[in-house]
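Dear colleagues,

As part of the handover before I leave the project, I'm documenting each prediction I ran so the next person doesn't have to rerun anything. This entry is a single chain, and its sequence is reproduced below.
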Amino acid sequence: MKADLRQLPANLNHWYVAALSRDLKARPLAVTLWGEPIVLFRDQRGRVQALEDRCPHRLVKLSHGRVKGDDLECAYHGWHFSGAGECTRVPYTESPPRCRVRTYATCERDGFVWLFGGDPEQAQASAPLAIPEWDHLNYIASVSIIECRAHFSYVVENLMDMYHGPLHNSYQAWGDAQLLTIREGPERVDAGYRAESFYRIDRIWSVAQLFIPALRSPHPEPLDVSYVYPHWQSTLGQDFRLYCLLCPQSALSTRAYLVHFTSLEAFKDLHRLPKSWRRLVKDSLYGSAGRLLDGLIRDDVRMIEEEQQAHLEHPERHNWELNRALAAVQRLIRVQADRTVASSDNC
């Protein structure tokens, strides 16, 4: 008998997004990755460090403390811990105990702090999902945070399912999707749809279509979506690119970052401006699609949480699902969960 999909663990031998880089400043930041409480902080050189969010002295949260040089000081008794997890100082003794705190591999890339929750040796052999548009001067970014009381599988299925356009009304850039192709493997699922796009970013005024539905002109565009475990990415024609960067917190809680890029590739005159001006345009327009993203998230989270609650109340009932892309996603989640079990058995 197959294990309940909605209870399967996330495979932590992957890079997950823990925070936006801009949100990690002078104070430590508490995050959770699949039941593990973790504290992030920057040392005096600005490097990101990640420790288990428990002081080994009394097991209180280190995230309540403050950064002192390269160390994190516990708020309770002032014990200090380095980014390597070593206890470096106890204020009331000259001989601090030789205790350690678990550490996690981290890196900063494309505006995010990434966290590797599994085997540190595997962290060296892998890399976070690339987001080349983040620093590209021809793409305007908007970021919204998803907080969802549901298993991460529900979030991914929602993202891969392009048939729920009726839910979003004016918040969605496309409609009338048709699934054309599916490719699946042990690391990813790629689904190709054809959809009617409502926007075409080919004139400077055409950006107004994002906010004024009456200006939109439907036209067919390829809509490609991919679950590149554990994250999601999508393109709609040449104008829009989307990413959803996940951080599964538990079997009943998922945090994610939805990242939207609007392309300025069609504005040839813009490309002739000095890079400093193009950077100014990019930075000034950051977050311009935020209202649309927030609307999409609000609609989706309501439905996803209802799905989760219905499953908790009636786990014996099964969905009548017609979208073959979702079955492929479920198979991939099971493959990755099996790898997690196998990795644990080998420890």
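Residues 290-313 form the longest helix (24 residues). The radius of gyration is 22 Å.

All the best with the project,
I.
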